């Protein structure tokens, strides 16, 4: 290629309209790379939560609610491989008492009511509104997303419930009656014996789960192939809030946990905004129940991937295809 050709191509490139998606200039969070520590007012004081904005979009902004409770935004670590190319803005967020946020460590705040109001304060601080605000909740984050929508759906453009059913009793029934019997008999008996003795701290319990259950229903890859972001999420998980709200068992939520009787299945019909139910064939959550949930909300769609509980990692093609199509269909008015 001649120097003249190179010069012409350079000028041509400069004349192309530059995307503002990754332009953080002249923004208040430019110096922090999109990180905002947002003050949250609670009944026991004011504390800061971590958020990190990725990209810019005037009409497609997705706030990500992680699982747990007590997990971290790290579970969404591969969103960077899919959403930027679509110029969809997404916002990482660690809920109070999660790793990157403040940790008052007070059970007074460990309620769905508190976390709904926390999301609302984050929404206001980030200027999210019905013209641009999509809320995506995965696992426990799905519970939180449904609860938020039931109280504040007028602030939402779209709702995405990822890998979570609307009823903990249904989740428990599926785990105990469908998933547990799929384990080898000797493995199931050993797990049940450990749980009966409430010996959850026994290293053998985690070993059995990791080898026989997690690689089937949490992330369908050999443990040595699990992505670093998921390993970090497990490493950073806050066990105190997790056990308080979810319990120590992985075969449902235990009776003494505060979420044990949570159920909004009869209230799904109240949700009017466009809603995507993102389930998975091998999930800990019943995919057929998630399909049903999409028929209960007033404007629902379901996508069932071939993955498991974190299907963004073990079936990213179908997960992100379903997610991106939904967001773009809502944005374009195909769903409203």
From TrEMBL:
Q: Do the record's keywords include Hydrolase?
A: yes
Q: Which species is listed as the source? A: Psychroflexus lacisalsi
Q: Which UniProt keywords apply?
A: Hydrolase
Q: What is this protein called?
A: Proline-specific peptidase family protein
Query: Which family does the record assign?
Result: Belongs to the peptidase S33 family.
Give the transmembrane region(s).
none
Instruction: Note the InterPro entries from the entry.
Output: AB_hydrolase_1, AB_hydrolase_fold, AB_hydrolase_sf, Peptidase_S33, Pro_imino_pep
Domain called AB hydrolase-1: residue spans: 62-316
Q: Tell me which NCBIfam families the record gives.
A: pro_imino_pep_2
Organism domain of life: Bacteria
Please tell me whether the keyword Hydrolase is annotated for this protein.
Answer: yes
- Pfam families recorded for this chain? Abhydrolase_1
């Amino acid at each position: 290629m001649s120097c003249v050709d190179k010069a012409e191509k350079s000028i041509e490139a400069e004349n192309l309209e530059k995307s503002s998606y990754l332009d953080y200039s002249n923004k208040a969070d430019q110096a922090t790379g999109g990180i905002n520590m947002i003050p949250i007012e609670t009944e026991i004081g004011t504390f800061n939560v971590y958020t990190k904005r990725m990209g810019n979009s005037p009409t497609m902004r997705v706030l990500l609610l992680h699982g747990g409770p007590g997990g971290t935004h790290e579970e969404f670590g591969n969103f960077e491989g899919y959403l930027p190319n679509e110029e969809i803005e997404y916002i990482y967020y660690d809920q109070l008492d999660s790793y990157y946020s403040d940790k008052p460590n007070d059970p007074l705040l460990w309620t769905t009511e508190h976390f709904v109001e926390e999301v609302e304060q984050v929404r206001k601080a980030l200027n999210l509104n019905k013209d641009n605000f999509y809320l995506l909740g995965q696992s426990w984050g799905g519970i939180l997303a449904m609860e938020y929508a039931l109280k504040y759906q007028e602030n939402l453009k779209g709702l995405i419930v990822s890998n979570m059913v609307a009823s903990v009793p249904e989740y428990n029934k599926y785990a105990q009656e469908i998933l547990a019997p799929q384990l080898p008999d000797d493995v199931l008996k050993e797990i049940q014996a450990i749980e009966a003795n409430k010996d959850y701290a026994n290293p053998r319990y985690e070993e059995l789960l990791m080898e026989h259950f997690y690689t089937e229903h949490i992330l369908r890859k050999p443990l040595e192939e699990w992505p670093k972001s998921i390993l970090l999420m497990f490493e950073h998980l806050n066990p105190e809030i997790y056990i308080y709200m979810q319990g120590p068992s992985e075969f449902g939520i235990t009776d003494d946990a505060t979420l044990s009787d949570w159920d909004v299945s009869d209230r799904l019909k109240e949700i009017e905004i466009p809603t995507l139910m993102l389930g998975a064939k091998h999930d800990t959550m019943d995919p057929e129940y998630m399909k049903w949930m999409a028929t209960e909300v007033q404007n629902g769609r379901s996508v069932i991937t071939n993955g498991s509980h974190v299907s963004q990692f073990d079936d990213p093609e179908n997960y992100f295809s379903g997610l991106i199509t939904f967001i773009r269909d809502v944005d374009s008015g195909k769903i409203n």
